[in-house]
User: Fold this.
Amino acid sequence: MIGRPLRVLAWLSFLAEVIIIGTGGAVRLTGSGLGCSEWPLCTPESLVPTPEQGIHGIIEFGNRTMTGLVGLLAIAVLLLVLHSVGGRRPVSAALWFAGGGIVVGVVCFAITSALGLPGFPFFSLGLLLVTIIAGVHSLRTTPMRRDLSALAWIVLIGVVAQAFVGGITVLTGLNPSIVGFHYVSSLLLVCATAAFLVRLDAAPGPRERAVPVWFAIVTHVTGLALAATIFFGVLTTGSGPHSGDVNVIRDGFDATVLAHIHSWPGYILAALLTVLTVFAWVQRLRPRRWLLVLVLAVLVQVAVGVWQSRDGLPGLLVGIHMVLAALSAAAYTVVVLRLKRPTP
Assistant:
């Protein structure tokens, strides 16, 4: 049922979600966040950057172009999944909803523009609402492999939502809180595409726990430590020297203090991972290989974090740190999914 084209596109979707974190980081770390002053146009008169905007306009527009690629891949994966599990009927329904979403978006755009409000965010919002309705309808009418369908819909809905948040980010002048939310949302999409790849090769049907109860509990606590580490990392970056534009006001927190707070859940994370990994390899549990991958990712992450803090937060190292955080979260997602196995 799962063909090679779907597998290839699913991997491309995962890679694109990782890459767009890198390009989004480049926008912020090079001060190109307002390289395009408008949304969705780059300037009030042009869709693409003009020579006057220089390299900052090119970097910002490149990230926007990457958003389009991510969206196309998400659509392609969804349509292939729907065709694989239900044939033409769910595909036709999804396409009808897509047309309806565009119509609703255009109506929202026209109304808000007539009221003197920015039209495109409301276009995106209308499209997002219809996409959510389409996803709910599709899952209610798709009897097979709802796990794959749900993940494919989550990714597409997330991409549409990201387009909306991205526009709000520009229109609010790179508000640090919205920029941080934008990054976390991208990281969650990386996790969703990673989960899709795992479930793509998993046998459908009921699943049972494949590890001791305490091991599963500690694994989920480890996830909380990872989430806290990433959260404080986002706050630290938002308060540091890389806000996306020289005129953007930071969060107002002390970046030096936050850097220390950011490390505390990191120490807890390292200790928990050590316990889980040693026990998993001694007992030959299912998640052991991916726990080792996660440990290696965290170790590299720690090394880069220490290096960047001692070297004055160079943009390249901060960008690598951001991408590694997403890859660590993706590896953790795989670990959690391997806590269970198909029921015999």
